[in-house]
Amino acid sequence: MASTIALRPSRWQAGAWANVPILSAVRGFATLLLVAFIFFACFAFSDTSPYDIVAIPTILLWLCLGLRLHRGLVPFVGLLVIYVAAIGVALMPYLDQPLSVAWTVQLAYLAITGVFFAMLFADDTLARMELALKTYVASCLLSSAFGIVGYFGYIPTEDLFYKYGRASGTFQDPNVFGSFLTLGALYLMHGLLVGNARRPLVSLAMLLVIVAGIFLSFSRGSWGGSLIAAGLMIFTIHRSSRSVALRRRIVGLTAVAAAGTVLAIVGLLSIGDTAEMFSKRASLSQDYDGGETGRFGNQIRGIGMLIDDPLGMGPLRWRLNFGLEPHNSYIGSFANGGWVGGVVFIGLVLVTGFVGFRLMSQDTPFRRHAQIVWPALLMFFLQAFQIDVEKWRHVYMMLGMVWGLEAARLAWRAGRDGGRAPNPRIS
């Protein structure tokens, strides 16, 4: 009798879960969490968003599934650790200031997300990058659609999707909204240019929605940065293409796209007060830029103060001296983290720039994604001269993407040069 009971299958083995591979189910759930994590990047109504709620379980579950810290990621991780540590040291005299402490904790958390994304995209790179970028496009579409309907008054509440006479989508700041959309636009544009888009008309329609959102944000940085990013991507695709027919296609479609964009902008300018807002925002400088107490005046006076203070002003304390944020991430890094923090931040930008341009220029399986992601990240590095980007969630996501591509490139190169077949998960 006892042996009969021992041989009888348990309820777990005989039940509905008997034929379900548990590990596959866990991986599927992890993928679902990852999609939610990336998609929620567009929700930035406040300092806390669904992105942050999903972040911890997503990171922990993926780490349990076996993410690795590749050797190619060591420079990136090292620079981030030193940067956050420098700001932590500068925080020491102000531990009784809740805002400064919260700002530093948030920065450390964002740095962790950057490392997570780098580790994630270092393996199974092509599949994970495609999933992430398609999810990002969906996030851009949602936010852009809300921004457009809010701008044109279909949602009457001004602070919802529409601020300061400008589309803001699901963001607090129209400048962040416009810049967020650039990566989604580049992904769709790349597919149309090289002919990889499965449904070109659908991709074109989505691209128009996103471009309209960028324009209606009336963000000078987003306009200029998006043009530079698109130009760099198009130039790189054209230069790296070995097909004369593809090069002609790229030139032709670029010309058509430029003409279509101009016509679309002219159409938007004819609606409501759009032309007046465009005329106001198209100026290179605004009222708050000039004067001794304006943005540029504060920056000049602040640089003199920072030269004499190796530890900086401390996190989030520039505003206490000048009443405004520095609106320059490079100056802000010196203010928040002292000389060490500033130098390391600039070093991170320069090293990432070297990695990004190399990824775009070398003929590897990862060049296509580099042609999309690096120009978008470069735009943020350029915008950092006139706005504070060090707390933007999607910037750390893109940093992780670029460094993940670099780690995958190094692994692929080592396998090829060593006479072995490339890792099938990243080739």
Quick structural gist:
This protein has 427 residues and is an all-alpha fold.
Structure description:
There is one protein chain. By secondary structure, this protein is mostly helical. It has 2 domains: 22-66; 72-410, no CATH class. It is built from 17 helices and 2 strands. Strands 1-2 form a two-stranded antiparallel sheet. A hairpin with a 2-residue loop joins strand 1 and strand 2 (166-167). Helix 7 (125-151) crosses helix 9 (200-216) and helix 16 runs antiparallel to helix 17. The radius of gyration is 24 Å and the shape is globular. Residues 1-7, 9-15 and 418-427 have low confidence and may be disordered.
| Overall domain count | 2
Count of distinct strands: 2
Radius of gyration: 24 Å
Report the portion of residues in β strands: under 5%
Portion of residues in helices?
over 70%
Question: How would you write the strand order of the largest sheet?
Answer: 1-2
Low-confidence stretches: 1-7, 9-15, 418-427
Structural class: mainly alpha
In round numbers, the mean pLDDT is: 85
Shape call? globular
Q: How far do the termini sit from each other?
A: 57 Å
For the largest beta-sheet, the strand count, sense and barrel status come to: 2 strands, antiparallel
| Helix and strand run | HHHHHHHEEHHHHHHHHHH
Number of helices: 17
Write the layout of secondary structure elements.
Elements: H1 2-7, H2 11-14, H3 22-39, H4 50-64, H5 74-91, H6 98-122, H7 125-151, E1 162-163, E2 166-167, H8 174-194, H9 200-216, H10 220-240, H11 244-269, H12 274-281, H13 295-307, H14 318-322, H15 329-361, H16 367-383, H17 393-417
Antiparallel strand pairs: 1-2
Helix pairs in contact: 3-4, 3-7, 5-6, 5-15, 6-17, 7-8, 7-9, 8-9, 8-10, 8-16, 9-11, 10-11, 10-16, 13-15, 15-16, 15-17, 16-17
